[in-house]
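Morning run. Coffee first, then this:
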Amino acid sequence: MIARETFHQLDAKKWAATSAQRKLQLLVAVRDNLKRYAVELARSEGEMKDALMGEVLFSDPESMLSTAVLLTNTLSACIRLYRSLAKGKMLKPSGIGCWKLQFRIGNGKGPVFG
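And here it is:
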């Protein structure tokens, strides 16, 4: 099955009716599968982008960051959410506002904002 066929088979109502525990199992299985094929996925993604651009522009590490790492982080966040929901709890943030961003306007001698 190709990606387009898979996408067209998605059913939001069916996913909504799926238990948090089952969603958790599916997400873990997808993440495990992604780990197994991450290098191949990244290489294929880079080759596809290079072909579209007509020249070699994307290295394997860049492709790994833009596909496998991004997908794995997203899946891990979803897994964390559904682990919490499966226990009947809402996920709580690990921290909000824990980073204080400061910057200066102009030549770097102006006021500090943040």
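The radius of gyration is 20 Å. Good start to the day.
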